[in-house]
Every structure is written in structure tokens, then in C-alpha cells.
């Protein structure tokens, strides 16, 4: 439960990608290769780390991903917008309003592209969330120190055991 | 016996010397390892305390768990499932029971108001033109017939996932010798699996869109929805599932008492969310926002 509440849900609520898209944006679609070779790493990372946050904050915006089998194929970010914010009933446009080539682009830059094209508003972390992140960091630091301590003790025990066996002649070097 | 001296000489030497020395020399090598062994084995020699066996599953206190309304859980799940193929990701329910480890388990099948899987192709073996065949067609069977179906299967064309046989056609089916083709696929109708029936129409209707569930390790797991379902559709499905489950539990009441401990909603690629039984709370987002395409 701690992991769900403190790590996964906090992760999806905060961090890069926690932003509110303007109302005009009707759809976001991504297209990239199935593997990361050929400069598709950033696109994949963007999908895995930032798209969940975008989707959480903008649940009504459809997000679609197409993955092709050609490493030299395109890696694009398509943003569809409605013609005017008032006529919501207008047919969904078939051609994207913005089409960005995101090949060889790290995920944060992809996010920056999205923000600059759409004018999305980033959600700032509240003081409470910041405090939770600090707690998680402290916890991780402490667990790393504990892990080191336990490992050292175990290794020492094993070494003693080995030396003892060697002295009894049960094993030979 | 020609020359007894070499044999006799050592014997005489032993007899001449003190008896205690040779005995000590013989025994000492066997004593030494024994002593060291005893030292080393002292730790493991103590018998391990046997753990007290439990006949119930561990239950955690839900006071420490954060519980979610259905709409909130769906908002999180839809975010975790972003970019996945909506046809392959499913909502799952996990119902944890307070029950004995050994004892009767809940096992049933039900038809959800909004079926999760609708593309099950069913083959019905019944005499063509009969009432049963007509019923099967009406209920949604893809393939109905006798000889033509047998011929098709023998040629290796098996384009269905379930196979049902009418009781009257069973003899003909067994004569056709299809067990070699259908058996390995688990499609061969038999009375043991309940696929040889009298009332074909009802069985087919139950099979289309019905799903099975059973209790394993004190938890009942079942897929309850496609990812594209709206919160209202999910609510109906969850309700139907829980109602059937409660009926099952009530039926077992005379034999064993089971209680529902925790209800968890998750999906193929998301963590599980403990539900608090409410549809939405004051801070939830509008339902309309979760109803659109993914």
C-alpha cells in the first residue's frame, strides 16, 4: 500500500508531464518504432513516463500510439486541435494541426515541444507533495545505507566461515 | 606356510611392547574428526521449531489502506493504460474473502450486462434442420451441422473456440473419430465437461459473453470490463458480479461461512485500487470525461 500510495500515485500526479492542455486540443497521437534503435528512445520514454501524467490530468483527451516495424521510419508527435473552441460538435480533423519530428529527441525535449505548440499549463507541486517526495528520497537513502550495512555484515560472516573451514582443512584454496 | 617368519615377527613385537600404546594409536584418528564434527554440528543439532500451521489466509487491516471510489480508480487506471491497445487491456476484479484455506471454493459462471469478450465462435453439432439446430443458430452459434462439420474438421479447418454437441448426435460424433483433431485442442464434447447437452439454445446463449470465475487462494479474480467502458457500464458489471458472488456465498452458508474482505479493481497494466463501494465522491472528475475514447 505504501508503494501504491506514495510512489506510483504520487509519480503519476506530479513530475514532468503533469500539465493541463488547453481545450482546443482534441487528440494526441504518437508514432514510432517498436524498438528504441534508430532514435526512437525518446519517443518511447515519453510514452512510458510522461503520457500517463498527461492522461491523468486530461482524461478526456484521447491519446493514441502507433508503433511500426521499420527502424528508419518516422517518429512523430501529432497534435490535433478543434477548429474553434466554441464549435465542439465539429468533425474531428483528419490531419494533425502540429506534426513534430521527435527522432533522436530526449523525452524532456518532446515534452517541451508539446508545451510550446499547445501552450499547456504546468501544474506546480503543492507543498504537501513536495514534502512527500522528500520523505521518499530520505527513505530511499536510508534503505541504501541499510542495505550496505547488511551486505558488509553478511560478507564478513561468510569470510569468517570460509577462513574457519580453511583452517579445519575442509576445503582447499 | 613355507616361511612363517615375516608374519610372526610383527606379532611378537606387539606382544613385547605395552598394549596401551598401539590401541591409542589406532583409536585417535577416529576420535579427532568426531570431535570436530561435534563442535560444528552443535548449532544445527537443535531441532527447528515447527511453525504453527494456519488454516486461514493472512488478512491485512484495511484501516491503513487508501480506498477509492470507482470513478477515481478508473481515472488512475486509464492513465496507467495510456497508449495501450484498448482491445487487449481489460479491467480486472479481485475479491478477497475471509475463508478457510481448505474447504469448498466458490466456482460459478455469469453473464455480465456488458460482456467483456463477445467474439467467441461456437460450433454446435446437431442434426441440420432439427429444432436444436435452429435454436443454436438463433442463439449465435457460428457453425451448425453434422456430417459437413465433421468433414470440415477432418480437413483441419477448425474455426471455433467452443464446441457443443446435442445428445442425439453424440453417437455419430464418436463414430466420426474426431477425438484426434479436437482432443488436443480441448474442444471434444463430452458429458464430463458439460458440453453434451439437451438444450442447445440455452447453453449457447450462456456461453456467448459469459465468463467463469473461481476462488483460488482465497481470492476470486475475473475480468469485468473492456478498457473502453464508461463508468456507468463498469458500475453495472461490478454490481452484477458482486451480486452473483453474494448469492454464491449465501448458498454455501450452510456448509462454510465466507465473507468479502476486500474488493480490488485493477487492469492489465495498472496497480490495484481498493474500492470503497462508492461510485464517485465530491472531488471526483465529471463522469463524462471518462466516457470518451482512450
From TrEMBL, chain A:
Q: Which domain of life is it from?
A: Eukaryota
Is Kinase one of the keywords UniProt gives this record? no
Keywords, ordered alphabetically: Mitochondrion, Ribonucleoprotein, Ribosomal protein
Q: Is Ion transport among the key words of this record?
A: no
State one molecular function term (GO). structural constituent of ribosome
Q: Where is each Ribosomal protein/NADH dehydrogenase domain found?
A: 35-121
InterPro entries of this UniProt entry? Answer: Ribosomal_mL43/mS25/NADH_DH, Ribosomal_mS25/mL61, Thioredoxin-like_sf
Tell me which GO cellular component terms the UniProt record holds.
Answer: mitochondrion; ribonucleoprotein complex; ribosome
User: Where in or outside the cell is it found?
Assistant: Mitochondrion
This chain's protein is named Ribosomal protein/NADH dehydrogenase domain-containing protein
Source species, please?
Answer: Aaosphaeria arxii CBS 175.79
UniProtKB/TrEMBL annotation, chain B:
Protein name (Swiss-Prot/TrEMBL): Ribosomal protein L1
Which UniProt key words apply to this protein? Ribonucleoprotein, Ribosomal protein
The chain's coiled-coil residues are none
Q: What PANTHER family does this protein's entry cite?
A: 54S RIBOSOMAL PROTEIN L1, MITOCHONDRIAL, LARGE RIBOSOMAL SUBUNIT PROTEIN UL1M
Q: Report the CDD domains cross-referenced here.
A: Ribosomal_L1 (cd00403)
Cellular component per GO? mitochondrial large ribosomal subunit
Please give the InterPro entries that the UniProt record associates with this protein. Ribosomal_uL1-like, Ribosomal_uL1/biogenesis, Ribosomal_uL1_3-a/b-sand
Family the entry assigns: Belongs to the universal ribosomal protein uL1 family.
The Gene Ontology terms for molecular function here are:
structural constituent of ribosome
Amino acid at each position: 500500500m505504501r508503494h501504491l500510495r506514495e510512489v506510483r500515485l504520487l509519480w503519476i500526479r506530479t513530475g514532468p508531464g503533469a500539465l493541463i492542455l488547453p481545450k482546443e486540443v482534441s487528440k494526441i497521437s504518437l508514432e514510432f518504432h517498436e524498438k528504441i534503435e534508430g532514435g526512437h528512445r525518446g519517443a518511447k520514454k515519453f510514452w512510458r513516463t510522461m503520457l500517463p501524467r498527461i492522461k491523468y490530468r486530461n482524461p478526456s483527451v484521447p491519446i493514441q500510439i502507433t508503433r511500426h516495424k521499420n527502424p528508419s521510419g518516422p517518429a512523430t508527435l501529432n497534435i490535433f486541435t478543434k477548429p474553434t473552441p466554441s464549435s465542439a460538435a465539429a468533425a474531428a480533423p483528419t490531419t494533425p494541426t502540429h506534426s513534430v519530428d521527435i527522432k533522436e529527441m530526449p523525452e524532456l525535449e518532446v515534452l517541451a515541444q508539446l508545451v510550446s505548440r499547445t501552450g499547456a499549463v504546468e501544474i506546480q507541486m503543492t507543498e504537501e507533495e513536495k514534502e512527500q517526495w522528500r520523505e521518499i528520497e530520505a527513505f530511499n537513502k536510508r534503505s541504501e545505507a541499510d542495505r550496505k550495512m547488511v551486505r558488509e555484515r553478511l560478507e564478513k560472516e561468510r569470510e569468517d566461515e570460509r577462513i574457519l573451514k580453511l583452517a579445519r582443512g575442509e576445503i582447499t584454496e | 606356510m613355507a616361511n612363517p617368519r615375516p608374519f610372526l615377527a610383527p606379532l611378537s613385537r606387539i606382544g613385547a611392547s605395552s598394549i596401551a600404546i598401539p590401541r591409542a594409536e589406532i583409536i585417535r584418528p577416529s576420535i579427532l574428526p568426531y570431535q570436530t564434527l561435534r563442535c560444528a554440528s552443535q548449532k544445527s543439532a537443535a531441532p527447528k521449531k515447527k511453525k504453527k500451521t494456519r488454516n486461514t489466509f493472512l488478512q491485512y487491516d484495511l484501516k491503513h489502506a487508501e480506498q477509492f471510489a470507482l470513478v477515481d480508480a478508473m481515472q488512475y487506471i486509464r492513465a496507467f493504460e495510456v497508449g495501450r491497445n484498448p482491445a487487449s487491456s481489460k479491467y480486472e476484479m479481485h475479491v478477497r474473502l475471509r475463508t478457510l484455506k481448505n474447504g469448498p471454493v466458490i466456482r460459478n459462471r455469469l453473464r455480465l450486462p456488458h460482456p467483456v469478450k463477445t467474439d467467441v465462435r461456437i460450433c454446435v453439432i446437431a442434426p441440420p434442420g432439427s429444432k436444436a439446430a435452429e435454436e443454436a443458430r438463433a442463439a449465435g452459434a457460428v457453425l451448425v451441422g453434422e456430417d459437413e462439420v465433421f468433414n470440415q474438421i477432418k480437413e483441419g479447418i477448425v474455426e471455433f473456440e467452443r464446441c457443443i454437441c446435442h445428445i442425439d448426435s453424440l453417437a455419430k460424433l464418436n463414430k466420426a473419430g474426431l477425438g484426434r483433431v479436437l482432443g488436443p485442442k480441448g474442444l471434444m464434447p463430452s458429458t464430463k465437461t458439460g458440453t453434451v447437452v439437451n438444450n442447445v439454445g440455452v447453453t449457447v446463449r450462456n456461453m456467448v459473453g459469459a465468463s467463469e470465475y473461481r476462488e483460488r487462494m482465497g481470492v476470486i479474480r475475473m475480468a469485468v470490463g473492456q478498457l473502453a467502458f464508461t463508468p456507468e457500464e463498469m458500475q453495472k458489471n461490478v454490481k452484477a458480479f458482486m451480486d452473483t458472488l453474494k448469492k454464491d456465498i449465501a448458498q454455501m452458508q450452510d456448509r462454510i461461512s465466507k465473507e468479502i474482505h476486500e474488493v480490488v479493481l485493477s487492469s492489465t497494466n495498472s496497480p490495484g485500487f481498493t474500492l470503497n463501494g462508492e461510485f464517485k465522491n465530491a472531488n471526483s472528475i465529471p463522469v463524462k470525461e471518462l466516457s470518451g475514447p482512450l
